[in-house]
């Protein structure tokens, strides 16, 4: 059996104890670990509503309801993978470069040990330092991004190149991701010009808008993602604003007219057969959440990533 597993909620009530993701042990080690969940409580990269620094705490609090068996994917997640909650990165609020350096430095030994990282955000700028750590260990990665925004802008506010709207532009420039092996799913909402959507395709990404996505079945999307990623190691970046704000109100840059939680999770679960180096669930802003709607959904998305990773491990 894996060394690190969640507390058994049939033995101790799930509302008891200190909150960690899925009630996993809070330890900082690289020994006997397959997946490390790590909080990235940073929101200085946000360009609209702020407060995602409290996202990791909210996701962890909701995640204690998760159970070890995923019936949709038929996998016993925690019998397959040894998982820990590594705690939070000590970021520097207000200072984006310093915080990004701290995130990369914290993830680097995990990535070097071959551990799959699951980051809990935090605004989407955290994906860049995550990718820096993972690419340093594994080489350039394929990106599978669920998001209502492409996050490929060049800069904001007169040359600010590091925000939650720019991480994947920087990741391409730095050679951390391979656009031709990468998929962006769910783009929608008003833009600055007619060429904005074309940008992703011009850079080499496979990109489907929400309208294009919802015309296809989860099986078709799974086939598309597998065909694009191939056998490259991949990073899943899941921005909760991918979902309609009715299903994820607690986020800083909502876009109406999106997928339901049922639809979005089905598309995510369809991404089997991929070798994951890491992933994240980002842009959870608890102050705008109600009844933990967004936090529960974000916890579930993280759990689906663990499930996909467990399936990949079982198949290898
Ligand atoms: Mn995003
Ligand atoms: Mn977004």
Q: Could you explain the architecture of this structure?
A:
- The structure is a single chain.
- It is built from 10 helices and 10 strands.
- The chain has 316 residues and is of the alpha/beta class.
- The chain has a single domain (21-315), classed as Arginase, Chain A (3-Layer(aba) Sandwich).
- Strands 4-1-5-10-9-6-7-8 form an 8-stranded parallel beta sheet, with helices on both faces. The protein has a two-stranded antiparallel sheet with strand order 2-3.
- Helix 1 crosses helix 10 and helix 3 runs parallel beside helix 4 (127-138).
- The site of one manganese (II) ion (MN) has 6 residues, from loops.
**Which superfamily, in CATH terms, is the homologous superfamily?**
Ureohydrolase domain
CATH architecture type: 3-Layer(aba) Sandwich
Helix content: 25-40%
End-to-end C-alpha gap: 17 Å
Series of H and E elements: EHEEHEHEHEHEHEHHEHEH
Sheet/helix structural class: alpha/beta
Number-wise, the strands total 10
Average of the residue pLDDT scores: 97
Tell me the strand percentage band. 15-25%
Could you name the CATH topology? Answer: Arginase, Chain A
Strand order of the largest sheet: 4-1-5-10-9-6-7-8
**In terms of per-residue confidence, which ranges show pLDDT below 50 for 5 or more consecutive residues?**
none
What's the main sheet like?
Answer: 8 strands, parallel
Number of domains: 1
Cofactors, ions and other ligands in the entry = manganese (II) ion
Oligomeric organization of the protein chains: single chain
Shape: globular
Number of helices: 10
> CATH class, anyone?
Alpha Beta
What radius of gyration results from the CA coordinates?
18 Å
């Amino acid at each position: 059996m894996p060394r690190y597993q969640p507390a058994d909620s049939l033995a101790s009530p799930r509302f008891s104890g200190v909150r960690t993701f899925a009630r996993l042990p809070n330890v900082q080690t690289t020994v006997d670990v397959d997946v490390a969940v790590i909080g990235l409580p940073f929101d200085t990269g946000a360009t609209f509503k702020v407060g995602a620094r409290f996202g990791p705490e909210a996701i962890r609090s909701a995640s204690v309801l998760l159970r070890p068996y995923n019936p949709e994917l038929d996998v016993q997640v925690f019998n397959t993978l040894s998982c820990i909650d590594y705690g939070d990165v000590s970021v520097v609020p207000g200072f984006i470069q310093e915080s990004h350096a701290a995130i990369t430095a914290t993830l680097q030994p995990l990535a070097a040990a071959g551990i799959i990282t699951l980051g809990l955000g935090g605004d989407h700028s955290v994906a860049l330092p995550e990718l820096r750590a993972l690419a340093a260990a594994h080489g350039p990665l394929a990106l599978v991004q669920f998001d209502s925004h492409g996050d490929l802008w060049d800069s904001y506010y007169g040359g600010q190149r590091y925000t939650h709207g720019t991480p994947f532009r920087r990741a391409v420039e730095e050679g951390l991701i391979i656009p031709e092996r990468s998929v962006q799913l769910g783009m929608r909402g008003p833009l600055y010009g007619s060429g904005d959507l074309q940008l992703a395709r011009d850079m080499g990404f496979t990109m489907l808008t929400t309208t294009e996505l919802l015309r296809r079945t989860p099986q078709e999307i799974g086939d598309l993602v597998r065909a694009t990623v191939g056998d490259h190691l991949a990073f899943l970046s899941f921005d909760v604003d991918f979902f309609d704000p009715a299903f994820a109100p607690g986020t800083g840059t909502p876009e109406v007219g999106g997928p339901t939680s049922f639809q979005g999770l089905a598309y995510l679960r369809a991404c089997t057969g991929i070798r994951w180096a890491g992933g994240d669930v980002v842009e959870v802003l608890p102050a705008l959440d109600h009844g933990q709607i967004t936090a529960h959904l974000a916890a579930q998305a993280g759990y689906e990533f663990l499930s996909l990773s467990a399936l990949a491990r079982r198949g290898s």
